Amino acid sequence: MDYSRHVVNDDYVRVGTGGHVVLALHGWFGSANAWEALTPHLDGDRFTYVFPNYRGYGARRDVAGEHSIAEAAADVLALADELGAGRFSLVGHSMGGSVMQWVYAEAPERVRALVGVSPVPAAGVPFDEQTWQLFSSAADSQESRKAIIDFTTGNRHPGHWLDRLVRHSLDNSDPAAFADYLVAWARTDFHDRIAGSDVPIKVIVGEHDPALGEQTMLATFAQWYPRLELEVMPDAGHYAPDEVPVTLANSIEVFLDEH
Description:
By secondary structure, this protein is of the alpha/beta class. The chain is 39% helix and 17% strand. An 8-stranded mixed beta sheet has the order 1-2-4-3-5-6-7-8, sandwiched between helices. It is globular, with a radius of gyration of 17 Å.
């Protein structure tokens, strides 16, 4: 199996040729290419992983849109149709966890399983005023982006690692779209649409994520999804795809193999 990335078109990256299609949705600081630390460890014989860009990100940086969770989810479903994927699983990192759940709410019969990696709950995320000011300033501030990544990974990583994630974010997101998406993932509440769902779902959080960690998941996902499996991953904060890619890939695929 050739594990190299295959850029199919400007909308997404595809890895693998397996029969189980997995749509992997990136976070606020990410893009379709942000998963590159994870992709060498994925089993492309059993799975086909597709990594889309939202409007305003990556190769779709100049694509106009309203930059809402609903719009991103509609684009994901349109991509699934384009790929001929009648049924598929979803992986969502951070903001992608909110998009993932909206896709499920729109087309539950098409979703085999959900895997959230430090996912944003379907009720959004509450902020105090000081934290909101920091996050709001990140659209135009490299320093704010770095401070957010440092905080959400437990202030544990060297500056050059933080700088790499910041640079990827700056290079792969339109500032206006980036600002819009903050409001979208933080303040979109649709948990009433998914509460009580019987979809197989696993949520993986980092031990060192102070915001979207175990307690947040117990107060949100665990209340809405009766079949939830929750895993706390040591040595990870909010960016497990970059921090512990081998461990994360195995955790995702062991769960997806069951469904």
